[in-house]
Design a protein that fits this description.
244 residues
Length: 244
């Protein structure tokens, strides 16, 4: 599929060769090990050399341009697309990443975390998906570990649909900036979408500091998605960088 035909469909859907959606899953015959065989459009899932997620270890410390999110409060527009809970973002929120401006399109969650931190998995992982005017995609990733209840998650958790369906306008405001860690140290590498079609050329920034969610909050998401995390992929010849 064209990556950016719509703000609403990015990152968690793919299009089969003849225009019908190819069914994919996180388990069974349509699971990650077979994504590349499900559609001609998904071949890079199997053959790509810059796939995401990865294990964040052995990073090279470097002087990197910082990350400057500028997220505005917005109405909560939430979607269960059958693969995750996704919040679609109104225009106006942006991030400056590696010296370039990217518009925030949507954010969504994975259980457990897709990336590992030196072999360790976290309870959840949050992805803020952005696009530059050039069409390049960039993702800010946040680990979520068990701890205190997260007030910023509450309206999302209260409104998340239990079954897949269309976008729902919940009628409340959310503040995505409250879901970012206070410390902004990060890892940086070139990767891909973590769902079919697994398109490469995505600029990844994973924050080192996790945020917290309560045991009940983690359990509630896990009840909907027991496992919606792609296994880690090979780093191959890529450079994994980390901020000083």
């Amino acid at each position: 599929m064209s990556l950016m035909k719509s703000r609403d469909v990015l990152a968690d859907s793919g299009t089969a060769s003849h225009g019908e959606a190819a069914h994919w899953s996180y388990e069974g015959e349509a699971g990650p090990q077979n994504w590349g065989e499900l559609s001609a459009d998904f071949k890079v899932c199997e053959l790509g050399f810059e796939q995401t997620p990865i294990d964040l270890k052995n990073a090279i410390s470097a002087q990197l341009a910082g990350v400057e999110p500028d997220f505005r409060p917005m109405p909560l527009k939430i979607l269960n697309n059958g693969h995750t809970i996704q919040v679609n973002c109104d225009p106006g929120s942006r991030s400056r990443i590696d010296g370039r401006s990217f518009e925030l399109l949507q954010f969504h969650f994975h259980h457990p975390s897709e990336h590992l931190l030196a072999g360790r998995a976290f309870d959840l992982e949050l992805h803020f998906v952005h696009r530059a005017e050039s069409g390049q995609l960039a993702v800010l990733g946040v680990f979520i570990q068990q701890g205190a209840e997260n007030a910023a998650l509450q309206p999302i958790w209260a409104g998340m649909p239990a079954v897949a369906g269309p976008v729902q306008d919940v009628g409340t405001q959310i503040t995505p900036a409250s879901l970012l860690p206070t410390e902004r140290g990060f890892f940086r590498y070139q990767g891909s979408l973590t769902t079919p079609p697994c398109s490469e050329g995505v600029l990844w920034t994973m924050f080192k500091q996790p945020i917290e969610a309560s045991e009940d909050q983690i359990r509630k998401f896990a009840a909907l998605f027991p496992s919606n995390a792609r296994p880690v992929q090979g780093v191959n010849r890529r450079f994994l960088l980390q901020s000083l």
